[in-house]
Write a structure and sequence with these properties.
The structure holds two protein chains of two kinds. Chain A is mostly beta strands. Chain A is 0% helix and 54% strand. Chain A has no helices and eleven strands. In chain A, the strands form two sheets. In chain A, strands 2, 4, 5, 6, 9, 10 and 11 form a seven-stranded mixed β-sheet that branches. Chain A has a four-stranded antiparallel β-sheet with strand order 1-3-8-7, with no helix packed on it. Chain B is mainly beta. Chain B has no helices and eleven strands. In chain B, strands 2, 4, 5, 9, 10 and 11 form a six-stranded mixed β-sheet that branches. The chains are: A mainly beta, B mainly beta.
Chain lengths: 115, 112
């Protein structure tokens, strides 16, 4: 399997612009997670899906952030409008089944810089 | 502070030495996992230990879990330069939903 695929790997944009990050989970995985990593706050869970349904979005910082999973093989994280404090590395991860039995598989991340 | 804090924040050792990293957490857990992150890359799973286990081995890795102290340690024996990375513990909190909460990480540097 190709692993979790994220795009773009790097994105530089200006404040106020819309940003869309994309993720393709591993085939057959029924859970998908979006994390954000910064030096100050470490790894934060933003939202996770089970069978394409959002289960917990309590980590989404504010209404500027939205995430969708229209089908089992694709998810997006959108920031509109973007702000400099959104600069971070955004990771997508997937797994099959409950986490008490298994591991998360991470993508390589999307590094976002908002000027 | 975060669920899952690693200690030390940074560790520098010579190749061949052992590296020990510690993790403390706050709530009851189902399991605890350790992940590795090379610079500029995604996280990679190393090992999982369940709440009813006390010790687990995988190759050069040894993990211990003390649920009474809410702490875990990761030991890497006979370290190599290629072990240079950041190491994170992650907990699956009991009753917390199907999600992992990551610690702050330990940056390990193994010098030749």
């Amino acid at each position: 399997d190709a692993g979790v695929i994220q795009s773009p790997r790097h994105e530089v944009t200006e404040m106020g612009q819309e940003v869309t990050l994309r993720c393709k989970p591993i085939s057959g995985h029924d859970y998908l997670f979006w994390y954000r990593q910064t030096m100050m706050r470490g790894l934060e869970l933003l939202i996770y899906f089970n069978n394409n349904v959002p289960i917990d979005d309590s980590g989404m910082p504010e209404d500027r952030f939205s995430a969708k999973m229209p089908n089992a093989s694709f998810s997006t994280l959108k920031i509109q409008p973007s702000e400099p404090r959104d600069s971070a590395v955004y990771f997508c991860a997937s797994t099959k089944g409950e986490l008490w039995t298994g591991e998360l598989f991470f993508g390589e991340g999307s590094r976002l810089t908002v000027l | 502070s975060q669920q899952g804090e690693e200690d030390p924040q940074a560790l520098s050792i010579q190749e061949g030495e052992n590296a020990t990293m510690n993790c403390s957490y706050k709530t009851s857990i189902n399991n605890l996992q350790w992940y590795r992150q090379n610079s500029g890359r995604g996280l990679v799973h190393l090992i999982l230990i369940r709440s009813n286990e006390r010790e687990k081995h995988s190759g050069r890795l040894r993990v211990t879990l003390d649920t009474s102290k809410k702490s875990s340690s990761l030991l890497i024996t006979a370290s190599r330069a290629a072990d240079t990375a950041s190491y994170f513990c992650a907990t699956d909190a009991w009753g917390g939903g199907n999600k992992l909460t990551f610690g702050t990480g330990t940056q390990l540097k193994v010098e030749l």
